[in-house]
Amino acid sequence: MATGAKHGIEKFVLYQPRLEELSDVLQKGLKENFADVHVSVADCPDLTKDPFGFPVKGICGKPRIADVGGVPYLIPVAKLDKIYDINTVARDTDLPGAFILGAGAASSRTLGINAELMPLVHTEHEGKPAVNGSYVARISPTDGGCLLEKYSEKYHDCDFGLLGNLYVSEGKPGKVLEIRASRRIGQFSLVTAIRKSLENHYGDKPVAMGGTFIIEKGKAKAHIMPAEFSACPLNTEEEVNNWLKHFEMEAPLICQSVLVSRDPGFDLRVEHTHFFSHHGEGGHYYTDTTPDIVEYVGYFLPAEFLYRIDRPVETHKIGRD
Fold it and tell me: Which residues lie below 8 Å from residue 222, measured CB to CB, with a gap of 6+?
């Protein structure tokens, strides 16, 4: 149900099943898409350690998601004045000092170009500055490949632009859903398979989850947005795909993901995943391209609340894959 909201912020109470129930639902649902599946309730690993290197130890504590801005601010024509601060998102979701991860667009005001952002920020609180562990992936001006950078090595803000799909929590250790899946036999990515399993089981009860997963073996299809925003309006899926730069990237890849089983009427992007690596590759995840050998391990939690921030008035469904 929707609740009262600050200006430009809509809040919705999500359906939040118990972890044990979700474990059973996903164990059954993911079996349709992967030959090997094991879903359990487990302790969140220490995310400050390799391969994650996050600024906090876990993803637990008052979990919520925020859908900020949206694809209509990127296409058909980019609205470059749409700049957001992750610290402000933490306050807007009633959790100042939160740890926030997810997928979004980098701030063109900061970078001077368009790029993919992998936000990983322990936000400011009670006089303590933010700890920004984010990554940014851009198109290399020298060879047209992927240029992956640690955000804080070049930039000193916590901004992002246009759109962001964010998982917000206290960043504490605790119990999570551990999902292990390998040898894909279905047509869906891991994220889509999770989302559809939830949708099929819970129907019109919106269940949202966020977290992180690793592609341990195999390769993944990805894109990175061009450095220059399109000079011409992008009005169709074909035009958007022709504008994006597509890649096949090698495991191991550390992914951060937000998904909602169904949109309860807030013009949501129902799933969005970005990833980084320690070998120079990163971007927007579509799916794996090596189904016979792919191996995933992930850690997720269901969210209590959805916050819809700065929802576009003029909207469309193009470019949300």
Answer: 246, 247, 248, 249, 275, 281, 282, 283, 284, 285, 286
The token pair at 46 is 């220490």
Cα separation, 160 vs 108, in Å, equals 8
Question: Mind listing the pLDDT tens digit for each residue in 292-319?
Answer: 999 999 999 999 999 999 999 999 999 9
Q: How far is it, in rounded angstroms, from Cα 238 to Cα 44?
A: 40
What distance in Å separates the CA atoms of residue 82 and residue 93, rounded to the nearest whole number? Answer: 19
CA angle 98/103/105 to nearest 5° reads 110
Does the pLDDT at position 321 exceed 90?
no
Which one-letter amino acid corresponds to residue 279? H
Which residues on neighbouring strands pair with residue 131, listed in sequence order?
122
Percent of the residues in the chain that have a pLDDT greater than 90, as a whole number: 97
Please give the CATH architecture assigned to the domain spanning 17-309.
2-Layer Sandwich (3.30)
CA distance 233 to 223: 19
Question: What's the predicted TM-score (pTM) here?
Answer: 0.96
Strand pairing report for 64-69 and 305-309: parallel
* pLDDT tens figures, 246-285: 999 999 999 999 999 999 999 999 999 999 999 999 999 9
Domain boundary assignment for the chain: 17-309
Q: What is the mean pLDDT of residues 79-104?
A: 97
Single-letter amino acid code for the residue at 99: F
Residue 164 Ramachandran class (φ > 0 left, ψ -120 to 50 alpha, else beta)? beta
